[in-house]
Amino acid sequence: MGIRTRFTDLCGIEHPIVQGGMMWVGRAELAAAVSNAGGLGILTALTQPTPDDLRREIERCRTMTDKPFGVNLTILPSVNPPPYAEYRKAIIDSGVKIVETAGHKPQEHVDDFKAHGVIVVHKCTAVRHALSAQRMGVDAISIDGFECAGHPGEDDIPGLILIPAAADKLTIPMIASGGFGDGRGLAAALALGADGINMGTRFCATVEAPIHDNVKQFLVDNDERGTNLIFRKFHNTGRVAKNSVSDQVVEISLREGAVFQDIQPLVSGAKGRVALETGDLDAGLVWAGQVQGLIHDIPTCEALIKRIVGDAEAIIRGRLSDMLSGELVAA
Questions:
Q1: How many angstroms separate the CA atoms of 36 and 59, rounded?
Q2: Percent of residues, the chain, with pLDDT higher than 90
Q3: Does the keyword Flavoprotein apply (predicted)?
Q4: Residue 241 lies in a domain
């Protein structure tokens, strides 16, 4: 039967499951596999060194899937920012119809994407930011709870509160992000008012994820306690997997008088890429969420999505329905 929501209708996908944009991970192999399985795969624009490289990656993805896929463009304040407008032009010129935006002051980008008929899904970590993005004209929101990998914001609101709080105020479709990895999560997100789920860490532990097998097994072996919160002192909180590097970052940050420059050599994106590509888990940061506690295998994207949707349907039609009929149901 499948699960139809406002988000599946908006994006023309079969299942309400999105693979979030992830630096170094959101490549054609993974995005195409997710899209072929009926979800929405996402390429990460800034993983590609130049806008022309992004154009080539979009075309490579098209050789691997004829299903809808999107591109993530994350806008962050920087002393030497990437040429965001050129990346945006590459996305538009390539005919991409779905974009996930995130980060700082996206209005210019949203306006241009919308002028070219692109569906814009904006990633937020707070209800007030989601409402601002809705006023900005985006088509859907991805609301990111405190459980997530990456930057959960500074409000520390977990998904159980954030999702329904956002659903109460938004009028556009919303997908829930942070802590999702199985059918129970999908059923819960739908019950809380979301129109689907976004998964990052869970998709890293799949056959098609373009990262080293050591990293995938690391995510399987970890549990829900296996993360560190870094950059808290500098008001740019990030959730990463617990390893020797993130432990050191936390320790240094706690020192009296510590400044960002004290940890900067440890947290470079280049070192994180080395960890992902070589499997050396002590080479750099590995970004991962608390959902590690729900990851127990490394399936194909097709098998994972099929299992999640099947389990969610079984929960909705079976366990929850039986409760309404008064039947005793095992947990």
A1: 16
A2: 92
A3: yes
A4: no
Phi, psi for residue 100 in degrees, rounded to 5: -100, 115
- CATH number, domain containing residue 112: 3.20.20.70
Rounded to whole angstroms, the Cα distance separating 157 from 129 reads 13
Structural domain tally of the chain? 1
Q: Inter-axis angle of helices 84-93 and 107-115, to 10 degrees? A: 20
User: Can you spell out the DSSP letters for 127-143?
Assistant: HHHHHHHHHHT-SEEEE
Query: What does R_g of the chain's alpha carbons equal in angstroms?
Result: 19
Half-sphere exposure of 230 (CA within 13 A, CB side): 31
Query: Encoding tokens for residue 313?
Result: 């349907």
pTM > 0.90: yes
The answer to whether residue 281 sits within a structural domain is no
Question: Does 20 have pLDDT greater than 60?
Answer: yes
Domain that holds residue 150: 6-211
φ, ψ of residue 135 in degrees (nearest 5): -65, -30
Residue in this structure with the two tokens 């993530």, named with its chain if needed: 72
Tell me the CB-side half-sphere exposure of residue 107, using CA atoms within 13 A: 5
Contact between 324 and 226 (Cβ < 8 Å): no
Q: Which residues contact 211 (CB under 8 A, 6 or more apart)?
A: 24, 25, 204, 276, 277
The answer to whether 222 touches 241, Cβ cutoff 8 Å, is: yes
